[in-house]
Design goal:
Helix content is 44%, strand content 6%. The protein is mainly alpha-helical. The protein is globular.
Length: 174
């Protein structure tokens, strides 16, 4: 009888955890494997990017252009660390040390990317020629251009989704 209760409790706990993941991410399905062949970009089938519906060209002055706004929408590290472990496995990285990756937003929070969508988060290597810190620099420059009115939000998002390594030059900002 006790074993049956433990099994029921374990099954119930697992079901609740899965339901929480689905509700927390807004998605139940995610690719079982992702290709590293796109590096330094994520596999577009796994991380096509996703937008925060609260951020539009008309709301940038009350969202992304407000100092500190991204901190109000940034997901917890407990959420992103768990997702990072899962996605490192999906990408089949031989280096599985979570410290060697940044769970990064394909469409950055600075440009109104969806904070918790798995389609917008990926384990970006901190090593190689084009690294997570290099992308951070691009994100900040794009946000400044959007907030200054020299680039539209849609153009900045499109450029970073196409290829963050060329986004600045594609928009004439480098």
């Amino acid at each position: 009888m006790r074993a049956a209760r433990r099994l029921t409790a374990t099954t119930t706990s697992l079901a609740i955890a899965v339901a929480g993941l689905i509700l927390g991410t807004g998605t139940a399905a995610h690719a079982a494997s992702c290709s590293q062949s796109y590096l330094p970009l994520p596999d577009p089938a796994c991380q096509p990017g996703a937008y925060n519906p609260d951020v539009t060209q008309g709301t940038i002055d009350s969202t992304i252009c407000v100092s500190g706004w991204t901190a109000t929408v940034r997901p917890s590290t407990s959420y992103t660390n768990a997702l990072k472990v899962q996605q490192i496995a999906e990408y089949g990285y031989s280096d599985t040390s979570t410290a060697d990756y940044e769970e990064d937003h394909m469409v950055p929070l600075e440009l109104g990317g969806a904070p918790k969508a798995a389609e917008n988060l990926w384990p970006e290597p901190r090593y190689g020629d084009e690294t997570a810190s290099g992308k951070d620099t691009v994100e900040n420059k794009l946000k400044k251009a959007v907030c200054a009115g020299t680039v539209t939000l849609d153009d900045a998002r499109s450029a970073i989704l196409t290829d963050w390594t060329t986004a600045l030059s594609d928009l004439g900002l480098s």
